[in-house]
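Sugar ABC transporter permease, pasting as requested.
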Amino acid sequence: MSATTVAKQPGRSWKDSALAIVKRQETGLLGVIIVLGLLVSLANENFLTRDNLYNVLQTVVVIGIIAIGQTFILIGKEIDLSVGSVLALSAVSAGAAFGSGVNPWLAMLIGIGVGALSGLAVGTVVVLGRVSSFIVTLGMLSIARGLTQLLTGGLPQAMPRELSFIGQGRIFGGIPVSVVIFLVLVILGQLLLTRTVFGLRVTAVGDNDTAARTGGIPVGRTRILSFMLIGTLAGVAGIVFATQVGVAEAQAGMGYELDVIAAAVIGGASLSGGRGSIIGAFLGACLLGVLRNAFILLALSPFLQQLSIGLVIVLAALFDQWRQGNLRHLHPKALTRRFAGRKA
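Structure tokens follow.
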């Protein structure tokens, strides 16, 4: 190899790195959010105000926190449909504990612990019972919601005033505390996924669990820990949600499952497992928040809002399939051969 070739290597490496960043789904998603934000700001000058942007972030905090855990689950080639119900169960457990005279901070830990135990229960049944996570979490959705109703009798549980700053407090010149908690969890989640043995194991299990098992990775334990992680984060989200509204309600978190999965998938988590990004899940949650905020500011129909979010989810899933090379059969030449009766 010549000296000239060696000297040029760093330049090519820098260009390749820059190109790789541009091609990342997170970069494209950030670009979509910026363009959408600019378009909305042209129609309504209130969009880019500091208070409105804080409001957008505050509205996606609960969905975003759980989306961090759902990303781990999807990367591991599983799915969790019970997160909304676990959120409610965790919140009312904390409220009931406080109502029984438990210290507010201990009550909060009890609520988060209930979420972790729910995740442990789901993971154990999935691994030891060899049952699809879709079925198990669908069952947990009903179980957790039923326990929530039994625990509260349908009545809201008051949250401790000492914890109200979590959902309603502001620091650093007006930034909501809940947003700061969310950002910290995003950073920790990304580090956990990319810089720890656990994160690498989750990716390996989702990519090929047989190869992972052959390589000595404890597949069952990794899956159980993943479900415990999302259960814990659902518990944290439950506390944040309850302190935002001031009470823990049995109906909290209804329908959140779709938004959580949407945020993770829009952010690049593959439904086929083995790929995903916590930063992407954060941006996915922000995109959903921007869309909802835009519809409110522009006074558009809420039905159109639901339709647009559904379209975004479908387009994100199609993009994921295209990125994996699974849409080659839709190439014009392949379609021509197929309709001509020849083998594609």
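Note for the archive: The two ends are 43 Å apart (CA to CA).
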